[in-house]
Every structure is written in structure tokens, then in C-alpha cells.
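Lab channel / #folding
Pinned by the channel admin:
"Please post every new chain as: sequence first, then the C-alpha cells as a reply. Keep commentary short and put observations after the output so the thread stays searchable."

First post following the new format, from NK:
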Amino acid sequence: MDLQKLRDMMADCECGHKHDFDLEALEIGSGIIDKTGEILKRYNFPKKILMVADVNSFRVTKGLYEQLLSEGFTVELRVYDDMKVADMREVEELEKLLARVDGCLSVGTGSVNDICRLSSYRAGKQFAIFATAPSMDGFASDSAPITKGNFKLSYPCRQPRIIIADTKILADSPTELKAAGFGDVMAKYIAIADWRVANLVHGDYYCERVASFVRNAVAKMAALADKVSVRDEEAAAAVMETLVLTGIAMQLAKCTRPASGTEHIISHYWECKKLEKGVISDFHGKKVGVATLVVADIYHKLSRIEKVSAHKETPDWQDIQSHYGPALTPDMMKLNLPDTIVNEIPPRLIEEKWDEIRKIIEEEIPSTETLKKLYAAAHAVTTPEEIAVDRELFDEGIRYHVYMRRRVTIMRLLPMLDIDPLKVYKSNK
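Reply from TO:
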């Protein structure tokens, strides 16, 4: 990937915003693990570093630690047990460790990268990633979803300076992880639709060039659906590039909207409610992928409604709080006080723009039948049961997730329309 060409392509955008990103280098190649130290030195990465991994990523990158030492790096090592949740406690621990070094190398994917990204940013240290599986789109993200007190929020930070990925390791990664990455990319269909609607009814910033950039990346992934799960280095490289591109899109837009919509918020609700009970959720991409299918079904059914009647939202806070529970309610209420975000939207505007909303849904989101075929080709999960979300939690997530974020989405408009999304989902219309 030519990053400078990408910068040039995004220059002088019609939206009027300056588009840029921090990523300096993306190095993807077969056997490139043996050149990691050389690559880091080429880009003047600090010689005194903290290398962070979990037991799984450390195992599949056997020899990386020694190789860095042989290249003249001073390496402190922190290896976690299998990490599926990025928690603020780990971020704070890494901040202390980073005080003794000049840079951080995250080895792995998902949660390991998230805690390294935020701790490096807060500690003012340089950050690089050695990716071990194409499992999510957050490699090039400039935000980190972190759990604090069981409530998950996205914290602003910076992109890594360097991303390195060995196609041999990517291709050999578990099918489950590769399929999770596929699910995370499919989520962008929902994200772009929600982003356009937020611009339409709430005036949120929207950039068509960034949106087109994401659409092209998603189309590339869809075309590779049948190769996602196979041990093919060329396919693994293409998938990795696609995941990085959707991450770059977030920094280009200076927000997470190009990559995260209703489907992510539902996933966060499921995750937080399970954490409340001490249960670790499944991989992020798997949860988001399942939520994408559910939301696609709901949105397409909404698009068949020809006329709506809107009113000011009148939340039943007692009911909402009873589902969030004592642990999650304080953070949830902070996001919805003194007024919820839809209080800023005139009801009449939704009525007037409803046909345009329906059009956006049809333009941006493939049918659920099409999506299911793509998922099948990629060996991605499709049902709540496959991610251990029971019926009660599923129903709660569909109805109450909207209060977890201060963000306009199509789903967030439904309380103003007296439309129950769960009833829509279960209907045959």
C-alpha cells in the first residue's frame, strides 16, 4: 500500500476538511518477522522499547524477542494471559511500565493493541504494531475501545507509527479470527448508512470521499469472502490491507463514524452486560458481524414503511435503568443528560426526510440474503447462539443499546416514531 498516494488522493477534498493520518509505514510480507528490527530502525523507532503480547501472540511470533535484541534493541517484555477484554486497569499498568522506555511494540491484535494504543498515547511514547491475525479493523485506528467499570467507551489516542504483518503468520492464524475480521468489515455497510442519516437529520459532519474510500475497501473484502478462511498468503495480505484501510478512514474523518454504527453499539451492550456477570464475550468481530446481520434485517424492513409520524422522545428512564442495572446506569445517564441527542432533532424533520432515509438504507446495505451468502463463504458466524448471546440478552440489546452512546443512528430515531425494533425484527414484513 502506497500511503503517500493515499494522502495525495485525499487532498483538496470537497468536504473542506484537511484529511491526514499518522501512520508512517505499513509493511506486509512473507517472512517479514525476521526483518522487524531492521524495519523499526529504518523508521527511527526508539531502541528502548516495551514489547507487549499475550500468550497466544507471543507463541506464534517465536523468536521475535530475541531478534529485536540481536538488532540492538533494549526490550522489556510484558506477556498477558489470553486477553479478550481491554480494561483500563491494564492501560494504567502499561503506563507505569512505559515510563522506563521510549516506545511500545504491540504484538497481537484486538485487545492487546487497544491497551497499548491508549497507554502509549497517555504516556507520550511512540507506538508500533506487529499484527498476528487479520481479526479486526482497529490496527490503524486513532481510538481505543476500553472497558472501565464494565462500561465500554472509545478513548481518543493516535494511530501507530508503524504496522508490520507477516503473511505466513496471518495465513496460519485460526479461521475463527480471520472470520471475525471479515465480520468487522461487513459492519461498515451499517456504519455508512447511519453516518449519512446522522448528517441528514442532525447535521453531523459527513465526507463522501471518505465514505467512498470505505465502500471500496468493503467491496474488496466481499470479493475475497471465499478466501478469508483459507491458508493463502496473498489473500491474507489483501485482507490485512483492507482492515488497515478502514482504520485509516476513521482518522481521515476524525471520528469513528466511517467504521462504527448501530451494530457496534449493540455489540458493546452485549459485552458490557456479560462483563457485569463476570463473563468474557466472544471476539469483537464475531459479535459485530452478527449484529450487522440483525441490523440489516431491521433497516430493510424499516425501508418498507412508507410514512412515519414522529414526536419528541419521552424515555421511560425507570425502565431503561432497570435493564442497565446499577453498575452501568451512572455512565449511561451521563451520556443522556441533560438532554438526549435526539432532543436536538425536530420531529417534523424526520417525517420530511423519511423517504431519503429509506433510500439511504437501500443504497448502502445489501440484503440479508446477500450478506448471509458472503458470511457463509467466509465461514463467519451468523446467529446470536454462536456468540453465546441468549434470547433475553439479545432482546435487551436490540431495544436498549441506543442509550450507550450519544450518537444519532437510524435505530436511535425509532423511539421518536413509536417503533419497537425487536418487533420489526421478528415480523415477516
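NK: Strands lie at 25-29, 48-54, 74-80, 103-108, 126-131, 143-148, 151-156, 162-166.
TO: also worth noting, The chain has a mean pLDDT of 95.
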